[in-house]
Amino acid sequence: MLYLTRKIDESIIINNDINITIIEINKNSVKLGIETPKSSTVLRKEVHDVIVKENMEALLYFDENSDKKVEQDDINE
């Protein structure tokens, strides 16, 4: 892990197209401004972790119930 020290209004650049700027520093938090290409997805880690967990649960459910898959023809009946 890379550790950097930044002050308010200072930035770091990642891969030449992601700019992270320190906006505000409080006692227990830091406010960041993040500029990325529109094709990038930016998520808080806790949100990302929930999405990954739900996707894994869905895969496990699908795998456990794969013999019960509904065919497209069954839906059209």
From TrEMBL:
UniProt keywords (A-Z) are: Bacterial flagellum biogenesis, Cytoplasm, Repressor, RNA-binding, Translation regulation
- GO molecular function, one example? mRNA 5'-UTR binding
Any one Pfam family here would be CsrA
Q: Which SUPFAM superfamilies match?
A: CsrA-like
The record's subcellular locations are: Cytoplasm
Keyword flag RNA-binding: yes
**Biological process per Gene Ontology, one example term:** negative regulation of translational initiation
For the keyword Repressor, the answer is yes
Q: What is its main location?
A: cytoplasm
Q: Per its UniProt record, what InterPro entries does this chain match? A: CsrA (IPR003751), CsrA_sf (IPR036107), EF_Hand_1_Ca_BS (IPR018247)
Superkingdom is: Bacteria
Q: Which GO terms describe its cellular component?
A: cytosol
Q: What does this protein do?
A: A translational regulator that binds mRNA to regulate translation initiation and/or mRNA stability. Usually binds in the 5'-UTR at or near the Shine-Dalgarno sequence preventing ribosome-binding, thus repressing translation. Its main target seems to be the major flagellin gene, while its function is anatagonized by FliW.
Q: How does it assemble?
A: Homodimer; the beta-strands of each monomer intercalate to form a hydrophobic core, while the alpha-helices form wings that extend away from the core.
Family in the record:
Belongs to the CsrA/RsmA family.
**Which HAMAP family does its entry note?**
CsrA
Stated name of the protein: Translational regulator CsrA
